[in-house]
Amino acid sequence: MSRQQSRRAGNVSDRNNAxxxxxxxxxxxxxxxxxxxxxxxxxxxxxxxDWVHPRDVSLARSNIPGPKVFKRDGQRGxxxxxxxxxxxxxxxxxxxxxxxxxGFDMGDWVEVMSRGAVNSWRTGTIREMHWDARWxxxxxxxxEGGQPIPKAYSREDLRHxxxxxxxxxxxxxxxxxxxxxx
Length: 182
Fold this sequence. Notes:
Helix content: 10-25%
Number of strands: 10
Strand order of the largest sheet: 4-3-2-1-5
Shape: elongated
Radius of gyration: 25 Å
Order of helices and strands: HEHEEEEEEEEEHH
Structural class: alpha+beta
Oligomer: single chain
């Protein structure tokens, strides 16, 4: 390699190093969106409604306190966004009792396993998630073909499944029902 070719190669290398130095280092990159957290509100504070966004107070009062397991979906300003199916509330960080996520969410298609004839085999979607303080676990309630099944299931009773085209056509649209109730 001639001296001139060596200088050109060095200049290219210097330009690449300069470009790399302008790229943000891994330490300076914004953190990835954190995994959602799950929890419930076992009580309502005695000192009022200041912890709930003013437009969400009536919805919060009709759903909190109770065993419903909410999913924390992020933050907007000073408020944390929590959801329960299609219901979304804006609340400040308070009173939340976090529970471990067991791998299922509202609206997931699941199969109820018979587990030695303990359960009736069925498939459906998760419609409710409630915290069971006695057993320290989430209890799942499902809809089968649009009909609510009254029995509560644990995570050991359920397995994720993909919906069939026929099942998705017969399942009611729960989001439109919730919007009408508001």
